[in-house]
């Protein structure tokens, strides 16, 4: 009896399932939304039918089916076994998922719900979290079409103890996309012409789908002409013919071009636009250093700010021309290697200094407004939007330049005489004092050094006397008032006296005559000696002067 009891207990221990384990059972009935399952040893339990259904699907269970369930308790208050199909599936799923995670293998699942930051995925019994950033390679606005759809996922991390699983759909798509890209790229070669569909347009270009792989069509490779934005010539969904410019085998990046399929307009630039020729163009862009002018589609030249105007030197190009304006330009230089054309705008108009030189020769009287006053003179506005300069020394005959310039104000209208035009240096010299002619030159026109002239005393001073000749003031120093020292007295003269003097110097710069009574007396004495005697004849100076005076009488 003892042996039989031991064998019976051993048999019961081997066949009776332990609580907390997965056991096999058989569906013996379906009633009231529940499946009744016999798990052996006259133990039966109930399982809700929904536990046999995948998310979004109807329960797939019939009487007679063998299923695995999780035995939570051998008996409840009603004498039934407490079992769960869902927990059995979860345990089974965790075992399967842990193996797949270890092998870095894909797992199949279906998205069935939305949670904060992402979605929930049923992996055949285990629920995983799918972050929003891992749904697709690009942000997904509407995940409706993906719901309930069985598809592969990649397990990023999992923790069985905490019951956490994080999966990615994006990793699967990127992997398959990389395989597809590699296959497409292997069939492409640089220089090949292919058809593609515009998928996306950005500020710098457009992405073109070449049948599973995208290539970048940069804005500079769309046309030979300047393209401000790709949308000017492309639209999303449009089929375009492009040329493969470059393929990076490592990064799988493809550079595309459209203009390479067209004739390069630069091949004929030198023939169509010879140096010195004038052409009409359209302003396409304005910068701080100049303006770009399109001569023909694909050929642009730069009008540097220094070549825009003869007269406007420090003005922004935008104040001379405007975008889309048609202008006449001259070709100054062509560099085919650098694909550059230098253009000139001012060269299509005559040099205003040359025009002024032709219409206003030296000596011409002009009138203009005082534009600027500087420490060295006045700038006068003239015809042709050019300026002429009146130097301090050309303001007045009688005043110093620093004094004369104080009489002028900006905006005053003045008259002047053209004294010089330098077209190379773009300078025009004017003179205000020359308006009335050169009084000094007129006064001393017939006077030479040594001439005897008659002057009028205008002032008596301690150091000499002031005299006037033909309106020109001069000063005779005390030492030049007489040959005789005793007679070198200014007070012996009176204002208004007329006296004869000898011209000793003519200074055009200071506009002064050097005059001397003493020099006149010495010259008269010398002349008398030469005419009436000499010191060797024995005649006295008195005799000689007497004879000279008698001869004069």
TrEMBL record:
GO biological process: translation
One of the Pfam families matching this protein, by short name: S1
SUPFAM superfamilies named in the record: Nucleic acid-binding proteins
Domain of life, source organism: Bacteria
Keyword Nucleus among record annotations: no
GO terms for MF: mRNA binding; structural constituent of ribosome
GO cellular component assignments: cytosolic small ribosomal subunit
SMART domains (alphabetical): S1
Every S1 motif domain range: 20-86, 104-170, 191-259, 276-346, 363-433, 450-518
Signal peptide: none
UniProt entry keywords in alphabetical sequence: Repeat, Ribonucleoprotein, Ribosomal protein, RNA-binding
Role summary: Binds mRNA; thus facilitating recognition of the initiation point. It is needed to translate mRNA with a short Shine-Dalgarno (SD) purine-rich sequence.
UniProt similarity note: Belongs to the bacterial ribosomal protein bS1 family.
Name listed for the protein in its UniProt record: 30S ribosomal protein S1
Native source species: Salipiger abyssi
């Amino acid at each position: 009896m003892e042996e039989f009891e031991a064998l019976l207990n051993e048999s019961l221990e081997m066949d009776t399932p332990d609580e907390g384990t997965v056991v096999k059972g058989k569906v013996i009935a379906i009633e009231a939304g529940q499946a009744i399952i016999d798990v052996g040893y006259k133990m039966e339990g109930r399982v809700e039918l929904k536990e046999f259904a995948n998310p979004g699907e109807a329960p797939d269970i019939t009487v007679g089916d063998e299923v695995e369930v999780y035995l939570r308790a051998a008996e409840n208050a009603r004498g039934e076994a407490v079992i769960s199909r869902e927990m059995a599936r979860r345990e089974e799923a965790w075992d399967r998922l842990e193996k797949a995670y270890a092998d870095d293998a894909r797992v199949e699942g279906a998205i069935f719900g939305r949670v904060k930051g992402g979605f929930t995925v049923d992996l055949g019994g285990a629920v995983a979290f799918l972050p929003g950033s891992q749904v697709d390679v690009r942000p997904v606005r509407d995940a409706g079409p993906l719901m309930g759809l069985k598809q592969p996922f990649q397990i990023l991390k999992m923790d069985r103890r905490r019951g956490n699983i994080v999966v990615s759909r994006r990793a699967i798509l990127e992997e398959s996309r990389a395989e597809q890209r590699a296959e497409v790229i292997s069939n492409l070669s640089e220089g090949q012409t292919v058809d593609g569909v515009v998928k996306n347009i950005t500020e710098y270009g457009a992405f073109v789908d070449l049948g599973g792989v995208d290539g970048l069509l940069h804005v500079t490779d769309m046309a030979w002409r300047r393209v401000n934005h790709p949308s000017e010539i492309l639209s999303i969904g449009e089929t375009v013919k492009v040329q493969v410019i470059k393929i990076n085998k490592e990064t799988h990046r493809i550079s595309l071009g459209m203009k390479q399929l067209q004739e390069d307009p630069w091949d004929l630039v030198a023939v169509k636009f010879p140096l010195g020729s004038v052409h009409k163009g359209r302003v396409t862009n304005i910068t701080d250093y100049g303006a770009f002018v399109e001569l023909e589609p694909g050929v642009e030249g730069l009008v540097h700010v220094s070549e825009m105007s003869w007269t406007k030197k420090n003005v922004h190009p935008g104040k001379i021309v405007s975008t889309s304006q048609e202008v006449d330009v001259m070709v100054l230089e062509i560099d085919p290697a650098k694909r550059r054309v230098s253009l000139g705008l001012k060269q299509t108009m005559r040099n205003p200094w040359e025009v002024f030189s032709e219409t206003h020769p030296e000596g011409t009287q002009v009138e203009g407004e005082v534009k600027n006053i500087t420490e060295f003179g006045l700038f006068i506005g003239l015809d042709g939007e050019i300026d002429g300069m009146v130097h301090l020394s050309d303001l007045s005959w009688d005043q110093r330049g620093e004094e004369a310039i104080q009489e002028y104000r900006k905006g005053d209208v003045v008259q002047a005489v053209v004294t010089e035009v330098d077209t190379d240096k773009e300078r025009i010299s004017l003179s205000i004092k020359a308006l009335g002619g050169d009084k000094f030159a007129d006064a001393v026109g017939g006077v030479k050094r040594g001439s005897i002239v008659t002057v009028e005393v205008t002032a008596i001073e301690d150091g000499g006397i002031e005299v006037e000749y033909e309106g020109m003031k001069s000063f005779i120093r005390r030492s030049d008032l007489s040959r005789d020292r005793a007679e070198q007295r200014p007070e012996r003269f009176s204002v208004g006296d007329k006296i004869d003097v000898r011209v000793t110097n003519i200074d055009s710069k200071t506009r002064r005559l050097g005059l001397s009574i003493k020099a006149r007396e010495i010259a008269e004495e010398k002349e008398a000696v030469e005419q009436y005697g000499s010191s060797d004849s024995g005649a006295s100076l008195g005799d000689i002067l007497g004879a000279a005076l008698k001869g004069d009488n």
